[in-house]
Amino acid sequence: MDINIRRMYLTDLNKVMEIEPIAFGRHHWSYDSFVNELNNPFANYFSAFDANNADLLLGYSGYWLFHEEAHITTLATHHNMRRMGIGEKLLLNDIYTAKELGASWLTLEVRVSNIAAQELYKRYGFKNIGLRKRYYQDNNEDAIILWTDNINKEDYMLFINEKLSTLGIQLDTGIING
Ligand SMILES: CC(C)(COP(=O)(O)OP(=O)(O)OC[C@H]1O[C@@H](n2cnc3c(N)ncnc32)[C@H](O)[C@@H]1OP(=O)(O)O)[C@@H](O)C(=O)NCCC(=O)NCCS
After folding, report:
1. What is the residue range of 117's domain?
2. Under DSSP, is residue 66 helix (H, G, I), strand (E, B) or coil?
3. Tens digits of per-residue pLDDT, 26-50?
4. Which of 25, 78, 114, 130 has the most C-beta neighbours closer than 10 Å?
5. Which atom of ligand 1 is nearest to the CA of 111?
6. 109 catalytic per annotation
7. 142 CB less than 6 Å from ligand 1?
């Protein structure tokens, strides 16, 4: 599926909220949390749309950037369009844009039960470095803490650039195009 990824706007949020509760269940972010996130100077959020239908939001992701560390805070794809490569493209966009903005490492927490997400992150070199016990308040589930190695290493960026090119990803991040 061809997709376009661009920065998330406030006007995307009604569509985001159609995906969010199904992706994350009872303890999903609210509309207002997203508004706060879009106003957070450390945050970078992106929306993925169908390249053939600019109204169809396929997924979204983003991270907080503190110095050289990018902390992925969310990643979700539309429930009817899973396993079509959208999550992978959003993750690639996170990695690429975070690097462009000065990050050297990416990190995140993932539920121990969330095998789908863990498999995706593993594919991009995220490694399990420990647990945050009872991190998720809805069911006291533990979180696995994942980190990349330094993403500025030449072999890693070659891998990312090759992926971007083979997957034909169009990025309009506002960074590349100024
Ligand atoms: C995790 C999530 C974003 C993956 O999105 P997606 O668009 O379905 O992922 P992709 O199609 O790009 O999958 C890429 C790879 O991830 C892995 N993967 C994705 N879904 C998987 C599943 N259900 N089981 C096992 N591996 C899976 C596979 O390695 C897959 O590659 P493959 O299809 O070639 O085998 C999506 O399942 C989602 O929105 N889940 C709910 C929200 C969530 O858990 N977010 C992560 C929070 S940390």
Report:
1. 3-172
2. strand
3. 889 999 999 999 999 999 999 999 9
4. 78
5. 48
6. yes
7. no
